Amino acid sequence: MHELAVTKGLLKICLEEGEKHKIEKINKINIKVGELTDLVPDCISYYFNIVARGTIAENTEINVEKIPVEIECNECGYKGIMGKNDYKCPKCKGLQYEITKGREFYLDTMEVD
Ligand SMILES: [Zn+2]
After folding, report:
1. Rounded to the nearest whole angstrom, what is the distance from the C-alpha of residue 24 to the centroid of ligand 1?
2. Residue 1 confidence (pLDDT)
3. What count of other Cβ atoms lies within 10 Å of the Cβ of residue 93?
4. All domains of the chain, ordered by start, with CATH?
5. Whole-number pLDDT of residue 80
6. Distance, CA 93 to ligand 1 centroid (Å)?
7. What are 46-103's pLDDT values in tens digits?
8. In what order do the strands lie in the sheet with 79-81?
9. Distance in Å, CA 25 to ligand 1 centroid
10. In terms of C-beta density within 10 A (0-12 exposed, 13-18 middle, 19 or more buried), how is residue 65 classed?
């Protein structure tokens, strides 16, 4: 499963941050996930609780914020959000665009003791 590898990576970052700042317990983490990733937030939470057992991140609440897809259109110059499941420029309906947002996956903030 893709989510498992991603979740392990996420935990590693949390634990590294925890060590750096001498944190004893991570209560909540806020992560950002682009709409274009195929990551399922519920799966991430599920796996996180398994891989984080016995660490400072055990029983951490996970808050996932989705990042909408943004494009820069090569045809009309439109810059901004692309409609969900649309895959066309919302302005000119063109298909010649660069995706500028929506592929992200990262740890945004942590709430700790
Ligand atoms: Zn356009």
Report:
1. 50
2. 56
3. 11
4. 2-68+102-112 (3.30.2320.50)
5. 97
6. 6
7. 999 999 999 999 999 999 999 999 999 999 999 999 987 788 999 999 999 999 999 9
8. 79-81, 70-73, 97-101
9. 47
10. exposed
Q: Which token pair is 32? A: 């950002």
- Degrees, nearest 5: CA angle 30-69-33: 20
pLDDT of residue 2: 82
Q: Which residue has the higher pLDDT, 52 or 41?
A: 52
User: What pLDDT does 105 receive?
Assistant: 94
Whether pTM exceeds 0.85: no
Cα 46 to averaged position of ligand 1 atoms, centre (Å) = 39
Q: Give me the long-range contacts of 72-81 (CB less than 8 A, separation at least 24).
A: 72/97, 72/98, 72/100, 73/97, 74/98
- Residue 20 has what pLDDT? 96
Residues with Cβ–ion distance below 5 A, ligand 1: 73, 75-76, 78, 89, 91-92, 94
CA angle 103, 69, 41 (to 5 degrees): 60
